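Problem: given the chain below (171 residues), write out its structure.
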Amino acid sequence: VFAALLVALGARAEGKPSKAWTDALAEGQEYQRAGDCARALEKYSEAIALRTSPLLRLRMAECQERVGKWVAALATYRLAANEARSAAEGELAQRADRAAATLGAQIPKLAVRRGPGAAKANVLLDGVALDEQSIGEHISVDPGEHVIEALFPGEKSSKVSLTLSPGDREA
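Solution.
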């Protein structure tokens, strides 16, 4: 079964898979079966750098979801679905679309708004600056703890931490 899966994954890309690709894929699948999705993701990333396939992207999305990287998983599921449609793999596209729809409904959303006196503050979400277009808009975030920080020119910063669960919508 394992060899058949490797052949199926490789057959979806052009030409014969390289040994490096086959090895990275095999190791990734072993880690995924053992429940070590963090290590599986490392191997799947190595494999995707060499050659991609919709099924490989789907496996990667499954692992991203399991390790709590839901926003990345959603994007990868959507990419897998698009690649599967391009390769005329309708069943795989539907599978990826279903996974994306299920996960997408559960991804927490966070809207960061400026408080009084914060018009000139630089706003960071988890250490990353938000652009003006993102302020006040719902942003998809992974479940878990998040830190919002307002940096005021020449003054002290202000921080707020919050924890979001699946399906939360915070403003």
